[in-house]
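Hi team, as promised in this morning's meeting, here are the two structures we talked about. I've kept the exact order from the run log so nobody has to guess. The first one is mostly here for context; it's the second one we should focus on when we meet again. Sequence first, then the predicted C-alpha cells.
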Amino acid sequence: MNGHRQEFDITQAPNNREISFALTDDLRVVASDDPASPVLLRFFSGYDRAFILPDEREELSGFKACLALNGTYRHAFGRVHAELVAIVEDASGTVLGGANFLATTINRGAMQPPASIALNYVYVEAAARGRGLLRIILQAVRMLAARALQLNGTGMQPALFIEQNDPLRLTAEEYAADTAYSGTDQIDRLAIWARLGARVLDFPYIQPPLSAGQHADDGLIYAAIDYPGEGVDRGLLHDHLESFFRISVLKGEVELPAGIAGAQLGALAQCCAPVKLLAIEPAVRWIRAGQPTARFDSFRALAAVAEKEG
C-alpha cells in the first residue's frame, strides 16, 4: 500500500470512538466500534445497495446491536473481541467501499494465527470497481483488527474468514436477484475471491438466523483467505465460530439447546484433524466449461471433486 502511514489517529468523542489512517496518498480508512458513530450510517448507505437476499441481510438495528456488545463481550470466552464498521474514502470524502467485521484473539500456539477475523460484509461501490480496492480494503481490515485487539504486529497475520453465496444452492430467482442487485455474477464473484487467496473450508457450514424474523442460511460457502497451510486448525475454527455466532449472528443471545450454532461447534470439538481447504478455481472452471453439476449438492462438494480431477 503505497504511501501508508504507520501512525493511527484515534478520535475520542462523548458517544464515539474512531480509528482512522491513510492507506495511500489519496485513500483513507475510518472505522468505529460504536453504534452511535456516524461511520455506521456512512457504511450502511453503501451496504444497503450491495446486499439483497433476505436471510443474509443485516438491518441497521442489527449492526447497532452487534457494536453495542463491544463493552459486555470484549473479553467473552477468555478471548478479546472487537466488532467494527469501516469505510474507505477518497481525498474528497467520497465513500468508495466498506466492511463490517469481528476480530477475535486466538490462543492456539505459536504455529497458528494470533487472531481471527470474521469478515461479515464487504463491498466496493459500483463506480469505484476495477481499481483493486477490494484488496486494499482487506489489508485495511487486517490492520484495523490488529489495532483494535492491540496485537504487537509481529508474527503471523490474523486468519481471515468470509461467507460466500453458494451458486449451486441458490434458487434461480435468488441467483438472478442477487446478481442484478450487486452487479456481479455469482461465479465471477467466486473467481475474484479466489484471486485474493480464498479457499473453501470442507465443512458443512450453516449460518444461524440473524434475527427472529429470519431463517438459517444453508446456501453459503465458508472460506478462508490466505490461510497458511492446507487446512484450518479445528480448535481455531471452533473458537472463531463460537465468538462469531454469539456476537455477530446471535447478538449476545444464548442459543436454545440443539441449535444450529451448537451443532457445528460440537462437531468441531469432537475431532482434532484440521479442516481441509479446497481450491476454488477448479470448480469455477468446471462450471464455466458447462460440465454438469446436478450431482453436487453444494459448491463445496463440487470443489472437492474438481480439485482432484484438475
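And here is the second protein, the one for discussion:
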Amino acid sequence: MGDEPGSAAPSRIGAIGLFGNPAKVAMPAALTTVTAICGAAGVRTVAAEDLAAVVPEGTPVLDPDTIIGQVDLVIALGGDGTMLRAARVLRLSGVPLLGVNLGSLGYLTDVRLVDLEQALQDVLAGNYHLDTRSRVYCSVWRDGERIARASALNDLVVNMGALPRALDMELRTDGESLGRFLGDGIVVSTPTGSTAYNLSAGGPICHSSVPCLLVSPICPHALGMRPLVISNETRIELVLHDCGDGAALTADGQKTHDLRDGDRLSFREARREVNLVKFPQSNFYRVMRHKLHWGGTRRRSDGDD
C-alpha cells in the first residue's frame, strides 16, 4: 500500500464513477479499458450522463450528483478542465479523484493514457495514497449582507467586466490595509493552483503541501503591489471601490457572480479538502520539470547523439 506521511490510507473500492470530455478522440477506448478492467475485478462502474454516446453498452449512466453518492472513487478522463469540473461536483463529499490525461498539458491529470491499465490495477490493489489538496473559499458581501459564496480547487479570480477598464481595489489582510491600487483584477490561489493562472500573473510556484494561499494582482498599475504568499490562517479581503461597468468572480475558470462598486470579498482556506489519488512514483517536482519545462531544455553535450 503506497502510503505517504500526512496522506489518507486507501479503502476498498466497490464502485467507480466516470467523468469526462466526450469530445476527446481517445475517450471511447479509455472508457472501454476502464470498464473492462473494473468488470473483471467485480467493481461496478457508472458514467456521467454526458458520456452516454461513448460509454460501452451496459454501463449505467446517471447525473453527476447522483453518481457521487454511489461510488468510492471518481475517474476524470480528459484535461485539467475536466478534472476541475469533477472537483466541483465532488464538493464536500470527500470521494477520491483520479485524473487521466487525454488532453495536452494535463498538469492535474497526471496518469497518461498509455499508463491507464497499470494505474487501474494499482488502484484496485490498493497501491496508491490520497493526497489531500486544500481549496479556497470566498464570500461576497454587499451592504452588510452576504450575497454569494464560491470555492475552488485552483483559484478564485476577480476580473474586469465586459469593457477593459481597470478596477480600483483595496487589499486587506486580517483587517489591515495593504494598499489601494488599479489593476485588471486579482488571483487568490491554492498551492495546487499556483501553477495555473497565478503563475501566468507572475505569482510563485508553491508545493501543494504548504499551508498557504497566494494572492497575485493582475497587471497592477503600482510597482509596490506584488504577489504574496499568505498563511492559510490569515483573513484576506478585497474591496471594490470602483469597477466601472462591473466585474466578475470566477471559480476555476467558471463565472460564478457579477460584482459591483462597494462589494467586499472575504477569502480563506476552505474547511474541506479534495482527495487526489496519487501513486508511489508521483512527484511534484518531476511533474513541474516535465510539464512546465522547469529549468528550460537540456543542453546537448558533445557526446550526445
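Starting points for discussion:
The chain has two domains: 15-133+273-291, 136-269.
Confidence is low (pLDDT under 50) at residues 1-6.
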